[in-house]
Amino acid sequence: MNRSKNWFQRGSKTHADKSMQRFLRGFLIRVGIILSFVLIYKSSLAQDNAKTLTIIHTNDLQSRLLGFAPNREYTPFTLGDDQTIGGVARVATVIKALKQKSPETTLVIDGGDVLMGTLFHTIAREESAELRLLQEIGYDAIALGNHEFDFRPRGLAQILHTALFKGNLPALLCANIVFNETDARDDELQALFEQGVVKPYQIFVKNGWRIGVFGLMGIDAAEVAPFAKPVTFSDPIAAAKQIVKTLKNDEQVDVIICASHGGVTQSARLDASAEEKKSISEIWKGEDIDLAREVPEIDVVVGGHSHTFLEKPIIVNNTPVLQAGAEGRYVGVLNLQIENGAAVMKDYQSIAINDSIAGDRDIQAMVDAYQEMINQKILNPHGFSFDQNIAETAFDLTIKAEESNLGNLVADAIRWSIDQHEHDPTRPNTRTAIAVESNGVIRDDLLRGKSGLLQVSDLFRVVSLGIGMVDDQPGYALMSFYLTAPEIKKAFEVLTSVHPRKGWDYFLQISGAKFRYNPNRVIFDRVIDIEIAGDSGHFAPLDLSSRNQQLYKVGCNVFVGTFIKLVGDFTWGFLRIVPKDSSGMPIEDLNTALVDANPNAAGIQEVKQWVSFLDYLRNFADLNGNNISDMPEGYRFPQGRIVRVDSWRPALLYKNATAVTWGASGLILVLLVGLAWLTQVVVTRLMRRATNNRVRQQISKQAKY
Fold first, then answer.
1. Does residue 670 share a domain with residue 634?
2. Residue 297 lies in a domain
3. What's the mean pLDDT in 211-225?
4. How many Å apart are CA 125 and CA 121, to the nearest integer?
């Protein structure tokens, strides 16, 4: 009975449990279905709230409107038949196709230095070719770079006026420009800022989001913009912090993009081992990295200036830092996902601009028209044409951060050209003894290509920069002055001591001399000895002692000459150099040192470096009878004009040493003597203390007995 009751009770309980389980199971299924719908709904809402923004970017196009190099092999409308890269018509094809997919979610931005570097910039003030082309392609915003100021503030203002008169232009941005209120040379450009033609930032509305884009000029870029005066630039990070506040608080933007002409450089090999990377804090460094770190409110940095190709963005504090190389070699495409007020990188693509992309025919037609204008306005008056064959070469000539065959060629052309205009055989001191060029002014290699033919447009790119000091026309003018032997040594110390700290631009290429230097010597006194070529071409040692006050004629372009005159100011006076005239009097106004192409005409007729470079190559012998000059075989390799000697041998540490080395040696000697004296004092005191301790211990022991 009890067992039966217990069984019944157990059975009743089991039945109740099963009923409850069925109820719970059904309830949970219903809840799960409801939750699934809720989650799907929320996900749908999230997808609605998550919006995308595509940023297409380039930088440092530098008037590269044609594929290169050489230009003659560029075939924009046929595929697979040339090795050229770049070309604005190809860039246009890529950007237009990307923008057409979703124009309401796409921004096209350039990081600055649209101008300077090819023959096309020579008509920038009259035609504004570069800016009009970028407007036609569909660019939204462009940062001002240092090369935008190469025609001075007034020239930039003229370029902008031309673009406005002949159409329109994208938003031009610079947030840290400072105008001089007492100097009228920047008034025209300042007026354009006040009119809003150029502005600190621009607001774009894309896909319902407010996007703030502002521009910055980097510190290094400002330093290498000598023709920007009297315009100056404030600290970019401080300016960025102020602009970010304005964009966040006043403009209520959702996304902030900085188009920065600052730059990034590699501080370690990308393939460095983990062990090697322990010795460095980061792989990348530079002003754009600092900007992203110091101003984390910036969502994207579209960079420029350093010509760095970043296959993938550098992520700093969740901020992508971008740069697409230079000269239209690449177009970068960044896709952002904007969700809940935050911009997050979705993906990134670098598109190589080459012969796999057909050029845009409308854009190329504009380029062709500009090319004909260059012939008429710039080249024909000098007896040249855009695609004229000047010389042919069996090898490439390239520029490097060391002595190079192209550097030899450019420096030789300067010395030859100045002698063509100024050397009087009856006056030996009028012969140009030495010519100097800096890597920063040599802008492109000379590549043989398929045919080896070097045309005017390719040769111009090598020495394309500058503007006249007197005639205000494109191109640096050549100049000459006199230096003593110790001053020549100081000039060469720019290569040995300034270049390692300031970089590529400060490496010097020379003609008419040879020298050795030892990097182990004291800074600003690393040149061991110099040999100089005589009239016969044979080299003889140059007396570098202060007793030798003979004057030697030196040739260069205006940019290098100005630098030589000022180099002492930023080397604490150690490399102070005073350019002189033939009588030894200091030259105050360097315009008086300009080479005059026609002394019999009124004023100074500037000798342009690019014209003299073409003339020098055209002067070479025609070895195969095809009426085209041939590049001499002697330029196939560097000629050994600059020799680095790493040595700790006293003879090579002190040969031709100046007061810099002797002073440093004396200081070291004083420090060593002082250290020896201090060591002796310390040891003596320690020994005295030890002796006193032993005496006290003996006295203590004797006292116990």
1. no
2. yes
3. 96
4. 8
